[in-house]
Write a structure and sequence with these properties.
By secondary structure, this protein is mostly helical. 43% of the residues lie in helices and 0% in strands. It contains three helices and no strands. Helix 1 (9-17) crosses helix 2 (23-35).
Length: 65
C-alpha cells in the first residue's frame, strides 16, 4: 500500500525538492504522479523554480524592529 496520497503528496513533493527522499520514496512519488495525471503538473512546475546561486544579503536589517 502506498504511503503517498492526495492528502499528503505535497509534503513528499517538498521533501523531493529538498532531496530528502530515499530512492524508493522518489520512485513511489513518481508512480503516484503517473497514477494521478491531474496532479502531474505540480511536479512539472518544479522545473520553473530556480533559486539564485549567489547569497542574498539584506543591508538594512539593523533598521528593522
Amino acid at each position: 500500500m502506498s504511503l503517498i496520497n492526495k492528502n499528503n503528496y505535497e509534503a513528499f513533493l517538498l521533501d523531493y525538492m529538498e532531496q530528502n527522499l530515499s530512492a524508493d520514496m522518489v520512485a513511489e512519488l513518481m508512480l503516484f504522479f503517473e497514477q494521478n495525471p491531474e496532479l502531474k503538473h505540480e511536479l512539472e512546475d518544479l522545473d520553473e523554480i530556480a533559486l539564485p546561486s549567489e547569497p542574498i544579503v539584506f543591508e538594512g536589517k539593523n533598521g528593522l524592529k
